[in-house]
Amino acid sequence: MEDGEDVALDFGSEDDAMRHKRVRHPVACFFHLFFRVLAIITYLFCGLFSNSFVTSFVIIVMMLSLDFWTVKNITGRLLVGLRWWNHVDEDGKSHWIFEARKKPGTLPPTAAESRVFWLGLIICPIIWSLFFFGTLFALKLNWLAVVVVGLSLSAANLYGYIRCKVGGKKKLSSIATNFLGQQILQRATATTPTDA
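Above: the chain's sequence. Below: its structure in token form.
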């Protein structure tokens, strides 16, 4: 398999009754949000239940790890048909693989499941970024370690799924450059004054 090669994934066959459901995977939707929300709530309110930093750190990192694993291995595949991973070959070279469901005949993700997936995936790194600046400016350096773990794990999943969505072979910087170039070109051609 070549690095970044598109692969048709077999996610199982769905029957016609599943086509008309708004949420085909309610358990996956629940757990997509459960661990990340629980980690954020624990971070915000852990001082009310325990004065031990170590206990709070372990609980929050455990919730973040469960969230990372769940999103990377289960909910991305079920809710939006995307998955990513790293493969190390015999030579020790690391290959990042980004896949999207391309098999004909499989059901596309529902709008509700897709919305839950992407909103959860995008909002959590934003929240952890706010926590990062809050702990940095408050000089709570021990809590900064917790926030960095939360930000790192949620940002890694976000980056992986964005790469899956836009295509594993393409570089995100080239996609952004092409998009901005097209926007500038369209505006330049649309706003040129015409001579009478």
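The longest strand covers residues 82-88.
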